[in-house]
Design brief:
alpha/beta; Aspartate Aminotransferase, domain 2; four-stranded antiparallel β-sheet; aromatic-L-amino-acid decarboxylase activity; lyase
């Protein structure tokens, strides 16, 4: 789709109008009603200074710290602030990355590179670990040993994880909190088990690392725990900075060297990288630095308490909604909900969208039913009464319709399909069956996704991956 004719020069006003047209179909990034993907402090001044910093530093390049020492100064400052929050020792170091996924990939890379003696490296993680760890393992050739979590608590099982560690294990991972359920893994025994075997332990605090330090009653999870060797925390989540910037901190410089890269064996300049990126705009880093200082740690503490209280308020209110329940009491600002079988979460998600809220459906996994994910931020707090009322109304509508029914024969057939052998024509046919197919192999996304999501939920994970990859492929052609 071409909005403007690239063969002729467009005026600034035409470009602004085109941008507004494109943006009109997007989810709102402010107001606290988009309960995943974006995070809103509700502080207009912080947003404004962040945008100014993006504009001021958008053309700078983090590739060469000697060319733009301002970026090194801001990165070092942010790492220092995070080090204090995460109880890091004075020797701890860090880097700024493009987001949580890059931080996690680098943590796995550093661990892999630290063990050249291991021919087939592996990592141990709970089954609830973020999908970015799966991506890291896939890209880096590190096999994943995923350990089932404790039933009912959805937290890592320390004894089972300890038993899964082998001589080929290069990294153990825990979550603070896990994205899907919003609970903090028992980091102390997990890290102790890793340390006993001489294995690194990374804590994925990408979504919780700028909230948990300000909350009471959270079990120890950061560098205060012996054996924790690295921690990742995203600034574009609960530090409320513009996308995309994350921090990866290591307990000491030796632990970080494995993800540094240098290349002098070519006729150009010597390439030096601390992250996966070479060229990287200084805009996100400068924006994060500006926002962190505009808000300040005292205000972050207030925002964290407000977001946490809002999360608990929603959790308490759900107990009074017929058909809906909290999966597990939340440890932070993330909430997982499920139904009692009288309706389905996919229909509730559609009903909430009609009411102006994004709640994120999560497919069933390992015998557990599908759930709804809510990430609550400070800006959501004033709207909690409306959120609860709309959840009740949406659930009532869903109960009136009853659960979406998937044809048992179709579900059984899906279980017999080998995703590895699907060609484009077959994928087009399957997408049409799923309600996503259009003319000429195009993809059509319906306004209501309950039936599509119910069918995807019935499909085995590998087939679901193949179908959604095909959707992504076709949407970007």
């Amino acid at each position: 789709m071409t909005i403007l004719d690239p063969s002729t020069r467009s005026t600034a006003q035409q470009i602004r109008e085109a941008l507004a047209t494109l943006r009109a179909a997007d989810l709102p990034t402010h107001g606290g009603r988009t309960l995943s993907y974006v995070y809103d402090s509700g502080i207009a001044e912080a947003d404004a200074i962040g945008r100014e910093a993006v504009a001021a530093f958008g053309a700078t390049n983090g590739l060469d710290p000697t060319a733009f020492p301002s970026l090194t100064a801001m990165e070092t400052d942010l790492v220092g602030i995070a080090r204090e929050l995460l109880h890091g020792p004075e020797a701890s170091v860090g880097v700024a990355t493009s987001g949580g996924t890059e931080s996690l990939i680098l943590a796995v890379l550093a661990a892999r590179e630290s063990r050249p003696d291991v021919e087939a490296p592996r990592l141990v993680a709970p089954s609830t670990v973020h999908a970015a760890i799966h991506k890291a393992g896939h890209l880096l050739g590190v096999a994943l040993d995923l350990v089932p979590v404790v039933p009912g608590s959805y937290r890592a099982d320390p004894a089972a994880m300890a038993s899964a560690i082998t001589d080929d294990t290069v990294l153990v991972v825990a979550s603070a909190p896990s994205y899907a359920h919003g609970v903090v893994d028992p980091v102390e025994p997990v890290a102790a088990a890793a340390a006993q075997r001489g294995v690194r332990c990374h804590v994925d605090a990408c979504i919780g690392g700028w909230v948990l330090p300000f909350l009471d009653g959270v079990s120890p999870w950061d560098f205060a725990v012996p054996g924790v060797t690295s921690v990742s925390v995203d600034l574009h989540k609960y530090a409320y900075a513009p996308k995309g910037v994350s921090l990866l901190l290591h307990r000491d410089p030796d632990l970080r060297r494995g993800h540094f890269f240098a290349a002098a064996d070519w006729p150009g300049y010597t390439v030096l990288n601390t992250t996966l990126q070479s060229t990287k705009s200084g805009g996100p880093l400068a924006a994060a630095w500006a926002v962190v200082h505009a808000i300040g740690l005292d205000r972050y503490a207030e925002l964290a308490v407000v977001a946490r209280a809002a999360t608990q308020e929603v959790a308490d209110a759900v107990a009074a909604i017929d058909g809906l329940e909290v999966v597990v009491p939340p440890d932070s600002t993330l909430l997982a909900l499920r139904t009692d079988g009288s309706c389905d979460v996919f229909t509730i998600a559609d009903e909430m969208k009609d009411r102006g809220w994004l709640v994120q459906p999560q497919m069933g996994f390992a015998g557990e039913a599908a759930t709804l994910h809510l990430s609550l931020c400070a800006a959501t707090a004033p709207g909690v009464p409306d959120l609860v009322a709309d959840l009740a109304a949406a659930t009532g509508q869903a109960r009136g319709r009853g659960p979406v029914q998937v044809d048992p024969q179709l579900a059984a057939a899906a279980g017999q399909i080998d995703p590895s052998g699907l060609d484009d024509a077959t994928l087009d046919g399957l997408l049409a069956i799923a309600g996503l197919g259009g003319e000429g192999g195009a993809v059509t996304l319906p306004d209501r996704m309950a039936e599509v999501n119910a069918l995807l939920d019935a499909a085995p994970p590998r087939l679901r991956e193949a179908l959604l990859t095909a959707v992504l492929d076709r949407l970007t052609r």
